[in-house]
Amino acid sequence: MQNAREEEWEVDGDLWQALGKLPSRPGAGRDGHLAGLRPHLEEALGELGRLERRRGLSDEERVSAEALRVLLAAAREAG
Question: How far apart are the first and last CA of the chain?
Fold first, then answer.
């Protein structure tokens, strides 16, 4: 998470690694991988929520937050 207003929030290394392991095709253990993203997604959304309360979010950060929410909903459905 970034502290200064000028700096954009970015996906951290752990989440990037977990996303990189997600199979691109349905099946082939995708649900298990997706479910494994859940703690990373919840942490990232928590960071964005704290950032939003402190200084608001940029347009790019809002788009990232929405994408993370969609992924989290899919991860919850997966297990």
Answer: 27
Assigned token pair, 64? 């990232």
Is the torsion defined by CA of 74, 25, 21, 19 positive or negative?
Answer: negative
Structure tokens, 47: 């960071």
pLDDT digits (tens, 9 = 90+) for 46-68: 999 999 999 999 999 999 999 99
Which residue in 59, 14, 10, 4 sits closest to 38, CA to CA? 14
Residue found under tokens 């997604």: 41
Q: Whole-model pTM?
A: 0.80
